[in-house]
Design a protein that fits this description.
Shape: elongated
Number of domains: 2
CATH class of the largest domain: Alpha Beta
Helix content: 55-70%
CATH topology of the largest domain: Glutaredoxin
Largest sheet: 5 strands, mixed
Order of helices and strands: HHHHEEHEHHHHHEEH
Strand order of the largest sheet: 1-3-2-4-5
Structural class: alpha+beta
Length: 252
């Protein structure tokens, strides 16, 4: 670079900056897909020189790669959520933790048979305690066992009776769902069982679970727990600190 004539050096520097910006903004597509470089109109020699400069820069400054990948992931999250974000954040009536009128929403896709979901209960309750404006929308995603679906249906029946939180806590505290544990959690939550059994048979319950399964498919979630905060998606028991960061970014 030091031997490059002045005007050519400036052009190359500008192109290099553009390439780095494209990398950071567009992730893995920087090399051949960047409109900012107008590569289709660029002589192959110039293109090769730019690619070499960018490659050298990245090798010398690999710390930019995590930032580039994070920005790419953010773009992909926003793309996946486009068109379905409102549906994702609209709860089944009553299936909410925290402040139902809260200004910031955290969505959790969960399965009562999921050990990691059970581990995340304390994290969610701590987040709610720390943020009075947090609304946590729970989407039942029973994918681990037939008993998961039975527990999910009872949870929606609990939501219909205004007892969702009580059932949610009881079911996770008792252990893996089966006929006995589901019934025990329902009793602990104080459900009217006759009313609950009638409600479980309502087509809207099956429709809600099918909707959640389809939303998870569209968003690329293959397991539980899975989370949506603002335009950010997270998978797994990521912990209170990471969830809090996502919530703060959504608030900002």
């Amino acid at each position: 670079m030091s031997n490059t004539p002045g005007p050519a050096r400036n052009r190359l520097r500008n192109a290099t900056v553009a390439a780095i910006i494209a990398l950071i903004g567009g992730g893995a597509g920087w090399l051949i897909g960047s409109d900012s470089l107008n590569q289709s109109a660029m002589p192959s020699g110039d293109k090769a020189a730019i690619e070499q400069v960018v490659r050298n820069y990245i090798l010398e400054h690999p710390e930019i790669l995590p930032e580039a990948m994070e920005r790419l992931r953010s773009r992909e999250d926003a793309k996946a959520l486009a068109g379905v974000a409102d549906v994702v954040k609209t709860p089944f009536p009553g299936a909410i933790l925290g402040n139902p009128e809260g200004k910031v929403t955290l969505v959790e896709f969960t399965d009562f048979a999921c050990t990691y979901c059970r581990q995340s209960v304390a994290d969610v309750e701590a987040l709610i305690a720390a943020n009075p404006e947090l609304k946590v929308v729970i989407r039942e995603l029973p994918i681990l066992s037939p008993q998961s679906a039975d527990a999910a249906r009872m949870a929606l029946a609990a939501a219909e009776q205004g007892r969702y939180l009580a059932f949610h806590r009881a079911m996770f505290a008792i252990g893996r769902p089966d006929a006995q544990t589901i019934a025990a959690a329902a009793r602990q939550a104080g459900l009217d069982m006759e009313r609950a059994n009638r409600f479980i048979a309502d087509p809207k319950v099956a429709a809600e679970i099918n909707r959640n399964l389809e939303l998870a498919r569209q968003l690329g979630f293959s397991g539980t727990p899975a989370w949506v905060a603002g335009d950010k998606m997270l998978s797994g028991a990521v912990g209170q600190a990471q969830l809090a960061q996502a919530i703060n970014e959504a608030e900002g």
